[in-house]
């Protein structure tokens, strides 16, 4: 409901490798309504809420995006193979705005839970995974699903815009337990540094510190607008 009211909303799945983060976010079987994860359930609730608000004169439009942050590089999980190799950058919408966006990130118009499930399957097939000592298919990247919401009520001349972010964080692993070597070692180090920065940002926000280290990682910089201010 907060997202429909114009507030940025962000939910994380955090934990060690194999703790069930991806299971929680996506569910084991997209075709079974009883076992669907948080992403399709949240989207369904948003669409239902939009239908109810339509009776009060509100009109909404939705676009969805999926990206991963792998070794501090952004990749579009909905792009075709050639485009997916291109690294994306985070930019300000304008010099006068604090809002951030990712140019060239594919944003797909969606109107139903089923359409989002199709995007979820595409993203899952493209995500970076690898075998580690702790998990045969360990997620080696942060996966960020974002539902971009724009609403208007012409009769009351009201407008709102928000982003619902659902983030499946890469598995946190201690280096001595993950038995990482070479590329896996670099991945684990990047993941742990990113997760550490996320913790520092949340702590700085809770302590109302004057400086928040958003720019210390791509994850926190991307989600800056969804972590600070009036975000939920």
TrEMBL record:
The keyword Transcription regulation does not apply. Its main location: cytoplasm. InterPro entries: Kinesin-like_fam, Kinesin_motor_CS, Kinesin_motor_dom, Kinesin_motor_dom_sf, P-loop_NTPase. This is CTK2 protein. Residues 1-232 form the Kinesin motor domain. It holds the Pfam family Kinesin. GO terms for molecular function: ATP binding; microtubule binding; microtubule motor activity. Coiled coil: none annotated. Keywords: ATP-binding, Cytoplasm, Cytoskeleton, Microtubule, Motor protein, Nucleotide-binding. It comes from Herpetotheres cachinnans. It comes from the Eukaryota. SUPFAM superfamilies: P-loop containing nucleoside triphosphate hydrolases. ATP binds at residues 15-22. GO terms for biological process: microtubule-based movement. The keyword rRNA-binding does not apply. Belongs to the TRAFAC class myosin-kinesin ATPase superfamily. Kinesin family. KIN-14 subfamily. Signal peptide: none annotated. One of its GO terms (cellular component) is microtubule. It is found in: Cytoplasm, Cytoskeleton.
